[in-house]
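To whoever is covering the structure queue this week,

Two jobs came back overnight. Logging them here so there's a record in the thread.

Job A:
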Amino acid sequence: MANYLGNAISRRELLRLSAAGVAGASMSGWLGVLANHAVRAAETPARKKACILLWMDGGPSHHDTFDPKPDAPADVRGELKAINTSVPGIQITEKFPRFAGHMQHAAILRSMTSDEPDHGRARVFVHTGYKPGVGGVRYPSLGSTVSAELGDPKFPLPNFVVTGTAMEKATFLTDAGYRGPSHVPLALNSPSQGLENLRPLVPADDFDDRAGVLDQLEQGFARTSRSAAATAHATTFRRALELMRSDKAKAFDLALEPAASRAPYGASPFGQGCLLARRLVEAGVSFVELYLGSWDSHAKESADKASNLMTQVDEGMAALVADLKERGLLDTTLVIWMGEFGRTPRINGKGGRDHWSKAWTSMLVGGGIKGGQAIGKSDRTGAEVAERPIAIKDFMASVCQVLGIDHARKVETPGGRPIRIVDEGAQPIRELIG
């Protein structure tokens, strides 16, 4: 009977029914009801996975975040102490006490490595999985790839949203590459402001009439002027109309969130961005990227600023993971914490750390991964990978695998050139799959 009922009723629930006097001879009367529940559950499509990328722009120090070196010399160790987490044997720095309690859901990747220590090139490399300029191709960011592979083209909300403060010049965030204008993200400069000016300034009927006329003009122009710019403009117009007409746009309004569930995220823009990300994936958005800048800590002043950012990240990220877990969304939502590289092992003469891409750390949470582990290892000073190197393309292939995307699939560009989603030779991190 247990095999027949599948997930409709557990052994524990069956025992509860027995204790209540429902089982036994009367149980036969429940079989039809339970079987119908099982059929309906089987017919309900599984929720597609979503991804939230918490992007730490500028390169956070792995020593000062999730790969502390408590036994290293002082000029390597730094001022921050290592603390225990919910997983025995895994320590992180004292700036993340809240998140330490959620480590059972996370996999820390302590052996990330690349040969791109330049901000601009590294940002593109980490976002696309391809080095900039290779083959003369504009490669899509991870968000655009997820939008194209997992997003619903008929969904009224954008399948890809980016938000955060001071991100106006971060063009790498919004480049869909060969995926085209349909997968360019909606960019919000402030998570708390949401989408402004969505309400038409004229009555609904008048607005629909005007939109219809404009649509006819757009179609006529597209027939006579087939260009990428015309296609992009028409796509933007159509998406804006769909969003204006959809009730789901309320997901962008943080004021609608109950105070009790909003409070744990804190008042910082980053915390509010985490809350917005949760609301959006809950509404059905496939990919949300939250930008947090000012991690480029070459001197004591900038290092102190980065240290203050860690408190915001701890509060917002811990609340996000707890909230997703409570709402039953954590197993279907992959949260990524990362930047473009790490920082130098030794603190420099200015009291900061410089760029370092030979060994650094990123982290994955939820999404069905095997959590509670640290994968790979850097050496005693965090200068070199000591065990299990993870290249950028391996990381990208792993994310794709977790989300259910075939990373080896070839996509045809507008010019007719087939290109792999992730570069050839990529090896997904096998330890992530439970």
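Job B:
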Amino acid sequence: MLIANFVWFAFSDATATQAQTGPMLGDPLNQAVLAFVDIFVTDKANTLFALLFGFGFWVQMERLETRGAPFARIYLRRLAVLLAMGLINICFIWPWDILNLYALAGFALFALRGLSPRAMLWLGVPLALLGRPLVDAASEALGIAGPAGEMIYSESAVLARQWAYTQGSYLDWLGATADLNYYDWLASGAIIGWLLYALGRFLVGAWVARAGWLQRAGELLPQMCRICLVALPLGLALETLALAIGDAGLIDAPGWVSTALHAVAVPVLDLGYATGMVLLFHSRWRVLAFAFAPVGRMALTNYLAQGVFIGALLYGFNGGLALAGTIEPKQVLPACLAFFAAQMLLSHWWLARYRFGPLEWLWRALTYGTRPPMRPAGRVA
């Protein structure tokens, strides 16, 4: 998520003009970084994130109902807290926040929890694949997307936003970010397409939980191995072909072909990623998987911290480096890797001393209306 967010936020019209990013494409290393991110990361990270959200929803529901706990009240309050955190983040810290979207889609998933497993799958897959394209097409047909895009993505608008980000005050940043969120997220109708996109993935994740695939992973390893051996190379081949037709322009074909190939490649490649991680967890190399576990246990804290980190490099207020418009993909990628390595170390250190990450503790306290103990009762191996 950090790589996908930082690379494209720094390289897109959100923070830089095409006159600034165009010369960067003359560097083969920048081209290689962008191709790497497109093939291996873009849309794959948020797809896995969303699938896990849906999976976690169903597992939590089953556990709470087994204990006789009021699932509806607890989960709706949990989503409300997440929505509040997301709104604070998107308005005051990180303009590409995903938490507000996931909270809203989570309410829709809660409303659809009574669907049969087959209905979840048959509704989830079309929404995941077609939700955003259909909404984008409708927005174009209704003449909504054009005016909204012109308000924030014309060269003058990008330069004004860049000035606010690099030379203005925090109040200037707030105004520029409010405009970006309003026109790009709300007025354009993009939020509806992304809601359908997320909901479709949530439904598929909940279906996977109901099917018991991960719960029975140990006995399904041979099947997962076969799936991984097919899905990984197939997904990479499809995504590479989509890139060759699309951004790279190496193959002459209509643009919709590249879009369709990418739409198919994302779930195929993610299937390879997911089964590969399960196989890793059940192999002699499982220590590699355990190395990432504390980062996942502090996912909320680490995600919000990444927005602060990106801002520290791109923005100029409060001692920021003000690199928006000048930082290149070949510089962003190693910065992401270094910061994530630091987050891994900090997460290990923190959870060796505390039960929850700081924001995980706050989320839990506001959800249950209690103050859970922060210190572990005893030493945990």
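Note for Job B: The radius of gyration is 21 Å.

Please reply-all if you pick these up so we don't duplicate work.
Q.
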